[in-house]
């Protein structure tokens, strides 16, 4: 039991700095949701049940009365397809997870949770308690930040003009840059970024998410494995 508590605490400590840096992202979403016409309660309910930051921003940007439900569902599904890739990469590292724990882990899976879980798995086994510490912290932080942003958003018109919504992308960039110590990550990241930017520029919708992910995967498959590269040298 003491080991479980320690693992849970380690998960909280690991993810807390990222959530602190990403707090403006939640505040901006809450304010944007209210500006789009949702009530503070509806904004918090969306975060509590949907729990998908970028997809929620997309849904709010497309929100109208009446809401285009089919288009909203398709757009949200498209932008969340990256979770399939993240879940697949973590699946092999969840030997200690029971089936029901995997289902709960899937609900709180996010960019920062995935990245920190992958980093943890590089040095130590990934445990349910550690993942729960990250997941619970991330979930509570996001819902609370949404609530505060929704309440404050009633008094702040056009909150996006402050530029605080760049805080979370900056955190993700930091995660990506520090994730790999070899040169193999550079062409993968570069291919994903270039293709995503070009797709975003010339193709409407959220196809840039899928295009960037596919480009990165293709480059990763074509590159020689680190061990093979070392042998060739």
Description:
The chain is an all-alpha fold and 233 residues long. The protein has 2 domains: 2-177, no CATH class; 180-233, no CATH class. It contains 13 helices and no strands. It has helices at residues 2-21, 23-35, 40-49, 53-61, 69-79, 82-91, 99-107, 111-123, 128-153, 167-177, 185-202, 207-222, 226-232. Helix 1 runs parallel beside helix 9 (128-153), helix 2 packs across helix 9 and helix 8 (111-123) runs parallel beside helix 10 (167-177). The protein is globular. The N and C termini lie far apart (48 Å).
Q: Write down the overall mean pLDDT.
A: 81
Largest sheet: number of strands, sense, barrel closure: none
- Low-pLDDT runs of 5+ residues are 228-233
* Total domain modules: 2
Record keyword descriptors for this entry.
single chain; 233 residues; mainly alpha; 2 domains; 13 helices; 74% helix; 0% strand; globular; disordered C terminus
Short summary of the structure?
The chain is an all-alpha fold and 233 residues long.
